[in-house]
Write the structure tokens for this entry.
Amino acid sequence: MNVGILYSRIRKDEKLLLNELRERDHAVTKIDVRKQTFDISDAPDGFDDLDIVVDRCLATSRSLYATQFLEAYGIPVVNSHETADICADKVKNSLALEKAGVPTPATKVAFTKETAMEAIEEFGYPCVLKPVVGSWGRLMAKIDSRDAAEAILEHKATLGHYEHKVFYVQEFVDKPGRDIRVLATDGEPIAGMVRSSDHWITNAAKGAETNVFEPDEEAKALVQKASDAVGGGLLGIDLMETADGYTVHEVNHTVEFKALDGAVETDVAGTVVDWLEEKAEAADPELEVTA
């Protein structure tokens, strides 16, 4: 099969996928979205030969537009534009999880400093303020006092970008110094890891220590339910442990897995490519996938 890779930078994650695809003798078409143009009527040259495209764009805006164009051209893309649109926005993400009955932290959204302060006061201290679009734990704030809240809200209100005018406020979950990332394909777990840190932000990108996590039945059920809630695909589902069980605080659509690959014995890239082959064959039953 011919697999397209949408990218803006080839990182270790993309190298793992590329190596696995080439080892299986699949054709690979790398598409640098910084150099690509998309026509509203016709697919660019070379796109007609693509059996499936994997979105690995770093920039959310590029991911959302590129996946929409590919679907308009009738080219299978993972993840879908619908999934990307939901996962890229924390508000949409939280709404989808809540609607599906997935346990998720209590969340309030406000559009002015005044109403955001009301939401913060209702939660009490500490609580968490996050950007509606963002990754790697950037621009997240744990708010411990009213003075801190006032300063942070004032700062966000003057940053200029419209997304900073959306105040996404969440309860602070007193997790046991760690959270959990499960990589899944259409809700089926590939592998999981625990990310531990003395800091309240436990992202691997922030230097958290990683160890293997074996999902129990409760975690597996929540991973499937969370995946279904956002439309399925290749996803990173983030869970936290509470006194009442797991809570899912986020689902990631252009998920990184290099840290996971280093923490587990599972052949992560190989399992992902197995799934890509299945998706391509499902989209075109006449396609002969040779591994």
User: Anything to note?
Assistant: The chain has a mean pLDDT of 91. The radius of gyration is 20 Å. The CA atoms of residues 193 and 258 lie 11 Å apart. The chain has nine helices and 13 strands.
